[in-house]
């Protein structure tokens, strides 16, 4: 294999692209072990950190599979890009929830500006389900109502892309929430905040919606 030193700014990106090209061309085949870090450093003329970052990016995209103690292996190459749902299926629940939380504040603010009466009816309905389920100790129903409450706020935001993203992230969280919430105590503690968030959206108060969304995330 020819040495192909790289002298560009984004070294990790360049290395990742070179490795991807080898996979596409068949020089690397599914199941084959990727050369070691020292070998890749020599081949591409870059440092260890650039190699590791390139491998991380390709592993995240599904082209590589890192097995601790064994090495890095080539996955079967598929030309089409991985869908968001496929990527989420490989992601850790805590990472998904972190991204979901980043979206929530903007969603609440937009919902206060763009909500319709139909949106408000949906949000209030799920809020009431959340409150009732939490007070009755029905944890699974409570979690589902909580997810539905926030998804309905996303739909009220008026941004379809934001809504689809939030829905995709939230759909993966129920099983994880069941693991980290043994009972409905934390949901009972935040019922008032969720009620306040709904009222701020209903009143069209973006500043208050932003504030209560942030308060909820603290919990």
TrEMBL record:
It comes from Dyadobacter soli. One of its GO terms (molecular function) is DNA binding. PROSITE patterns: HTH_GNTR (PS50949). This is DNA-binding transcriptional regulator, FadR family. Residues 9-77 form the HTH gntR-type domain. Transmembrane segments: none annotated. Signal peptide: none annotated. CDD domains: WHTH_GntR. Keywords: DNA-binding, Transcription, Transcription regulation. InterPro entries: GntR_C (IPR011711), TF_FadR/GntR_C (IPR008920), Tscrpt_reg_HTH_GntR (IPR000524), WH-like_DNA-bd_sf (IPR036388), WH_DNA-bd_sf (IPR036390).
């Amino acid at each position: 294999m020819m040495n192909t030193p790289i002298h560009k700014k984004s070294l990790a990106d360049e290395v990742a692209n070179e490795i991807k090209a080898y996979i596409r061309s068949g020089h690397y085949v599914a199941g084959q072990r990727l050369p070691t870090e020292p070998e890749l450093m020599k081949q591409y003329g870059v440092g260890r950190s650039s190699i590791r970052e390139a491998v991380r990016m390709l592993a995240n995209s599904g082209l590589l599979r890192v097995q601790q103690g064994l090495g890095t292996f080539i996955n079967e190459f598929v030309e089409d890009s991985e869908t968001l749902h496929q990527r989420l299926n490989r992601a850790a629940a805590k990472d998904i929830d972190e991204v979901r939380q980043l979206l929530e504040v903007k969603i609440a603010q937009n919902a206060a500006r763009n909500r319709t009466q139909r949106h408000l009816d949906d949000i209030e309905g799920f809020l009431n389900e959340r409150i009732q389920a939490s007070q009755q100790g029905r944890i699974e129903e409570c979690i589902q109502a909580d997810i539905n409450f926030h998804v309905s706020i996303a739909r009220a935001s008026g941004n379809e892309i934001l809504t689809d993203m939030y829905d995709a992230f939230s759909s993966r969280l129920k099983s994880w929430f069941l693991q980290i919430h043994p009972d409905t105590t934390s949901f009972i503690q935040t019922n008032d905040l969720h009620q306040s968030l709904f009222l701020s959206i209903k009143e069209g108060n973006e500043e208050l919606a932003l504030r209560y969304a942030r308060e909820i995330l603290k919990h």
